[in-house]
Amino acid sequence: MDERKILLREDEMPRQWYNILADIAMNPPLGPDGNPVTPEQLAPVFPMNLIEQEVSTERWIDIPEPVMDVLKIWRPAPLVRARNLEKALGTPAKIYFKNESLSPPGSHKPNTAVAQVYYNKEFGIKRITTETGAGQWGSALSFACAQFGLECKIYMVRVSFDQKPYRKSMMATWGGNCIPSPSPETRAGRAALEKDPNTPGSLGIAISEAIEEAVADESGQTRYSLGSVLNHVMLHQTIIGLEAKKQMEKIGQYPDIIIGCAGGGSNFAGLAFPFVHDKINGKQIEIYPVEPAGCPTLTKAPFVYDHGDTAKYTPLLPMHSLGHAFVPPPIHSGGLRYHGMAPTVSQLVDEGLLTPKSVKQKEVFEAGILLARTEGIIPAPETNHALAAVVDEARKAKEEGKEKVILFNWSGHGLLDLTAYENYLAGNLKDIVLSDEEIAEAGKIYADHPKPASLKSRK
Amino acid sequence: MTDPTIENLETRCPRLGSPITFQYCLISGEDDTICWKVLDCWWERFDVENYLKSNMSEAEFNQLMARAEKPKNKVSSILEIVKEAKKRVEG
After folding, report:
1. What percent of chain B clears pLDDT 90, i.e. is strictly above it?
2. Cβ contacts (< 8 Å) between B16 and chain A: which residues?
3. pTM for the whole thing?
4. Residue in chain B lying closest to A30 (CA)
5. In this complex, do A433 and B46 lie within 8 Å of one another by their Cβ atoms?
6. Which of A153, A248, A257, A364 has the most crowded Cβ, counting Cβ within 10 A?
7. Number of H helices, E strands in chain A
8. What angle in degrees, to the nearest 10, is found between the helix axes of A136-148 and A110-122?
């Protein structure tokens, strides 16, 4: 009987992170002035030891012992054979996942939070600020700060703060000070509240508040932390894929297909980058970052922009509406257009080492429900994007009669995201088809609404 | 006055990770403008493109499309926010 969980002992944990920047050429990030960003420009918000990691091209970077010690609270994470899912789908594919939902905050995020807090502490930082949407990142950072004895201040977007009281409680339990944004504690927050005291807030305001607090600390003991996108975040997450490689070696397997959901890119990169390294060195492997299906008008743009225009406001060629009859296939090629996407992931797509896939909302939740009912864990809604692609690949393997080995990242659980499931189960995700008359009528109503006044042009 | 069939529709915001209404998308972008992901997030539910076109000038709509098609990179955004924060703190 095959083992269901493939485990590593603590002494088998990887001792180094894998840095993809050693193996790919990247253009330096450009600042607002169009010139390459220098480490000094980032110094007001990040400690220099993390900035050095951000630009390092060393292939292997040692994981400090104190970081290892905290990671061992839940790592090594098990590699799990999704046998019930295989059975439910009747597929000959062998499906494995890394279970990142077992961390204390319930997602992959603490893999980098722990490392970031450690490096901040080493640099002499006493206080870390950040923003959070629904609270996953804020929870991870609060947990990590508790482990190393740093203060943590989290600006949580008001609309989420009001919806997710348990996330706030989780952060508070770990000692994190989570406040709704906009807040009266920063100039950016006060300005937003002055404009509209009942504003639901936005990520943009929350980031401004977190960064302002770091910049305003004259003692130099406060820094800002970001949980995705940046190179050092991807680096810290590679422990996921490095563990997975060891675990697959233990059972004499190697994946044909790697799948991860790609929001900001960190959980995907964490699993995939160590396998990208193999692919660069000749391994035959398909690697799929999965994103929500974008608007076809944008992804299959029938118009052309003059990208030489730095103001980005060049006229567009005439566009056609989607129309009511347009139905794209459930799984189709994506483009990873999200600006929050890690540049390293985008670069690997450009180089043809990754093949983006995208999935539609309903398939995403159908897959989430199927996995919850077969493998038992209620997935985080973003994880469901990967699951939809896994189900699709498993069905393809069945059609082709191939025993493919599929490996994916179960990036987190959804126990604090049940509203999304509630909406799906209540049938609230159904499509709304408006007639032209209804749209015209909606337009009339909208014309009287105060909000359109805010549809102002970008400065 | 709102259009209950549209502006109160709910979806999960991929940036926040929380359920939000379409109304929120109209004000949660940069400087209280429409979020640039609004087309990606809503096109499956209703003809959001036509809806917005009916309620914005052509120039406004084109600017929204431009933001959606060619957004800023994260590091550049952070540096801009740092610059603005310094101005506020020092100003």
Report:
1. 29
2. 133-134, 157, 159-160, 203
3. 0.89
4. B76
5. yes
6. A364
7. 19, 14
8. 40
